[in-house]
Amino acid sequence: MAFDGIVVANLVYELNQTILNSRINKIAQPEKDELLFTLKGQNGAHRLAMSASASLPFLYLTDQNKKSPLTAPNFCMLLRKHIANGRITAIRQPGLERIIHFEIEHLDDLGDVCHKILTVELMGKHSNIIFRKEDGTIIDSIKHISAQVSSVREVLPGRSYFIPETTQKENPLLCEKESFFASVFHRPESVCKAIYNSYTGISPVIANEICFRAGIDGDFSTGSLNEDEKLHLYHNFDWFFHDIQNFCFSPNIIYKGKEPIEFAAVRLSVYQDFETHAYDSVSRVLETYYARRNSYTRIRQKSSDLRRVVTTALERNKKKYILQQKQLKDTEKREKYRIYGELLNTYGYGLKEGAKSLEALNYYTNEMIAIPLDDQLSASENAKKYFDRYGKLKRTYEALTALIEETKSEIDHLESIATALDIAILEEDLVQIREELTEFGYIRKKRNEKKAKIKSKPLHYVSSDGFHMYVGKNNFQNDELTFQFATGGDWWFHAKGMPGSHVIVKTEGKELPDSTFEEAGKLAGFYSKGKDSEKVEIDYLQRKNVKKPNGSAPGFVVYYTNYSLTIHPDISGIEEIS
User: Fold this and answer.
1) CA 309 – CA 437 distance, rounded (Å)
2) pLDDT value for 268
3) Which of the two ends of the chain, N or C, has the fewest CB atoms closer than 10 A to its terminal CB?
């Protein structure tokens, strides 16, 4: 995520096109570090949301309203007193800093025209919203920063506002060839790092994009480039910021499957292998991205207790599995002891008293072997001793074989639950997973606990040829899809040899085209443990050939005749029905 100076430049350009000269109709403070302005102007009514959150600072236009506290916080009351009904006369960005100044004209208590400035600093943990006079004197801020907190700059009422120059970075919009060479290529670090460390407003993502456009690996050191490569890099840098100066923005979000992984105000060629959604507004990009990321973050937080239960149980069972396999390996000697006993019974009649070994022909291999003996025991007693060892190891082998199979089955079951947790995108998706963990004893059932209502439904897609495809989000849904929803002639898909969703394609009695088989295979690969692999092998067959063993865990099936295909698990372009 890169809320850099270029995104801010795009925002300032958009705000100047939409809310410049608008009047501030309402001011609300729905959160401790968040403001929501309602504006009215020639372009209609708009809402402007801004946040100085250390973890998620933002500023964008939105259609959404937020509930405010009954009693407005002091900072909100101060803004209402001074700039309620004020007019936004200028919106500007100093250099390419992550800062936006809103110049506001308003009338004071005597009816005289006054000017104030609201400054929004979008700088990660240093983010702030500062209200000040035209001469720079701070009236107040949403966060107070004292000298004890920052030795660089105090942000307190009465102090003078200034932008701290702690990094000595240059403005890329004013860059020339000589200064670029002096700034970037004299740094003993990677090219990408040298760019974003030399210029303000450039994130690592943008620095990497400039390198990519120049055909240079951003991880190479600055000293490894020849003169032609240096010149080519400068030209791409110059072309890039020439577009920014001319407001050539292309706001977009980069998706990996359904998860947003990056946003930018320009097209990112470096992400050409990922799905890109373009938007006509950077505000829509920011609102959509933060909403999607929030939902993913929230579901990760909500599922953390379930993940901890699954992870703990998996680690315990994997350790047990390794120990059981080691013990099983120790039973491999059992056949040797049985043969020793048989050979002693066959050839032991001529054994001399006190002998410590017996040379005998192994009639299984037709080779001579030496059998160690206890010289205090007779041949028959030694044979009985070996048969006893054999019997004990055989019983251990049989018991361990069953235990290993049981442990492996439990590991597979837990891994399938872990995959279901990765697939979950809504809070209701976790209900069935929790129910499954409770049913199998991983979570203790609370006394008088009522069974939760199941609202989660399988994912629903439509192939390019119009066939409906359904994806189970968890083991209960997998069972329901395969054995209750699907009919015998429908097609069933699953990633081979790994936890994943059951995918059902409803045929409605028709023949499936090749493209639908491929799309269903992609869904099965994407909703499996192999979703990040380049290639995933998919088994598919008609539903009537899929069987469920008695007493098996939910989602577990067997089949013996199937087809296979190998796909890249990219589901971009497959239409989902919500």
Assistant:
1) 9
2) 93
3) C
Q: How many helices (H) and strands (E) does the chain have?
A: 13, 21
Type of residue at 366 = N
Query: What whole-number distance in Å separates Cα of residue 212 and Cα of residue 177?
Result: 19
Do the strands 23-31 and 58-62 form a parallel or antiparallel pair, or are they unpaired? unpaired
Whether residue 122 is predicted with pLDDT greater than 90 in this model: the reply is: yes
Answer yes or no: are the C-beta atoms of 216 and 191 closer than 8 Å: yes
Instruction: Of 466, 554, 567, 472, give the one whose Cα is nearest residue 507.
Output: 466
- Helix (H) or strand (E) segment spanning residue 290: helix 282-302
Element (H, E) at 16: helix 5-18
What are 176's two structure tokens? 């020339």
Could you count the other beta carbons within 10 Å of the beta carbon of residue 216?
19
Residue 115 pLDDT exceeds 80: yes
Q: pLDDT class for 80, splitting at 50, 70, 90?
A: very high
Q: What span, in angstroms and rounded, lies between the C-alpha atoms of 474 and 305? A: 17
What's this model's pTM, rounded to 2 decimal places? 0.66
**Tokens in use for 67?**
């509930």
What is d(CA 544, CA 542) in angstroms, rounded to the nearest whole number?
6
- Alpha carbons within 13 angstroms on the beta-carbon side of residue 258 total 16
List, in order, residues 6 or more apart from 511 with CB less than 8 Å away: none
> For residue 293, what pLDDT is reported?
75
* 70 CB neighbour count, 10 Å cutoff: 5
DSSP 150-200: -SS--B-TTSBP----SS-PBPGGG--HHHHHHHHTTSSSBHHHHHHHHBT
What DSSP character marks residue 558?
Answer: B
Sorted by sequence, the CB contacts under 8 Å of residue 360 that are 6+ apart come out as 343, 344, 346, 347, 368, 369, 371
Burial (Cβ within 10 Å: 0-12, 13-18, ≥19) of residue 368: exposed
pLDDT tens sequence across 455-479: 788 999 999 999 999 999 999 999 9
C-alpha to C-alpha distances, 45 to 87, 142, 246, 282, nearest whole angstrom: 13, 25, 27, 18
